[in-house]
Amino acid sequence: MKLQRAQRRTPPESIIPLIDVVFFLLVFFMLIGRMDATAPFDVTPAVALTGQDMPGGGTTLAIGEAGQIALDGTAMTRPAVLDALRDGVVANPSRLIRVNAHHATPLADVLPLVAAVEAMGARDVVLVVTPDTP
């Protein structure tokens, strides 16, 4: 009696290479796709004006690295600064207000002050910046 070996079946195709291709496509489309929300209207960012002298006069609001605040060279608390600015803006809404913040100051310390000054009715709020030197 002669015993026969069972015939070997070919293994089914592996789907692992297909999974790799799907992940490569996913990464590819994530990299080339736009992930930010686009505005339904045209938005042109502001342009910094460098090489021009700062306008004279007005009030200077200085914000330190740790969030300290000074108004025209006098250190004050935030409520005192806002009260003083409110009095000045009510008296002269066209008065220039310069905001000079340390480069390491978190935006969370700068933007609420700028928004509060604009809400008071100030017409001209200037952020002081230093251009990069080539």
Keywords:
single chain; 134 residues; alpha/beta; Nucleotidyltransferase, domain 5; 5-stranded mixed sheet; 3 helices; 33% helix; 16% strand
Task: Please provide a written account of the structure.
- The protein is an alpha/beta fold.
- It has a domain at 59-127: 2-Layer Sandwich (Nucleotidyltransferase, domain 5), CATH 3.30.420.
- 33% of the residues lie in helices and 16% in strands.
- It has three helices and five strands, in the order H-E-E-E-H-E-H-E.
- The chain has a five-stranded mixed sheet with strand order 3-2-1-4-5.
- A hairpin with a 5-residue loop joins strand 1 (59-63) and strand 2 (69-71).
- The longest helix is centred in the first third of the chain and has 17 residues, at 16-32.
- The radius of gyration is 31 Å and the shape is rod-shaped.
- The chain starts with 15 loop residues before the first helix and ends in a 7-residue tail after the last strand.
Shape: rod-shaped
Rounded mean pLDDT score: 79
Give the fraction of residues assigned to helices: 25-40%
User: From N to C, what is the helix and strand string?
Assistant: HEEEHEHE
Indicate the CATH class of the domain at 59-127.
Alpha Beta
The total of beta strands comes to: 5
| Biggest sheet character | 5 strands, mixed
Q: Total helix count?
A: 3
Oligomer state equals: single chain
Please list the strands of the largest sheet in the order they lie side by side: 3-2-1-4-5
Question: How does CATH name the architecture of the domain at 59-127?
Answer: 2-Layer Sandwich
In terms of structural class, how would the helical and strand content be classed?
alpha/beta
Q: What are the segments in which pLDDT stays under 50 over at least 5 consecutive residues? A: none
How far apart lie the N and C ends?
Answer: 93 Å
Radius of gyration: 31 Å
Beta-sheet strand percentage? Answer: 15-25%
CATH topology of the domain at 59-127: Nucleotidyltransferase, domain 5
